[in-house]
């Protein structure tokens, strides 16, 4: 019952801190830059984050 639940959390927690930082860093940055690239980099991020 707790077999697949325990090993999954342990495996996700171990390889998460390493590949999570580098993968989550360039991922959101590239999306934010590509989205507000047309001409809305400051107002777009501020409006979405403020909302």
Automatic annotation (TrEMBL):
Comp. bias regions, Low complexity: 21-38
Compositional bias (Basic and acidic residues): 1-11
Residue span of region Disordered: 1-51
Protein name: Uncharacterized protein
Organism: Phaeovulum vinaykumarii
